[in-house]
Amino acid sequence: MEEKNRKQIKKSGRKPKIDPAVHRYSINLNAEENAKFLALFDQSGMNAKAHFITACIFQKTVKTVKIDMDAIEYHEKLTRFFSQFRAIGTNYNQVVKLLYRNFSEKKASAYLFKLEKETFELAKLTKEIIRLTQEFEAKYLNKE
Questions:
Q1: Is residue 133 a contact partner of residue 126, using CB atoms and an 8 Å limit?
Q2: pLDDT at 113 over 70
């Protein structure tokens, strides 16, 4: 009866594990191997090195996430370009309307000819941007 009372009173502390990990192993790494290990550990995103090591030993899947900041920055700049192109298109329409409303047919045609030349240059620039984007995606954003 005293043993039952002792067990009932002793409820503080951590609950014992069903299968505790009591076997421990030690390895030694040189500076180069340690640097490789730490790089792999950082890529895995795991919180504990012990969990990472056991996952590697028993061939559990280790998730690695690589964030390419250059690709993100490139995407942001392309997005800004897109908004600028939209603004140019809106301004283009407004200029054409104002030219025909405020100038004679001959003068409006002369100004439209100049505007058309600049639009052609913008179209060439846009094609170059598209070519560079496709080249960038093929070279750097290939999915592995």
A1: no
A2: yes
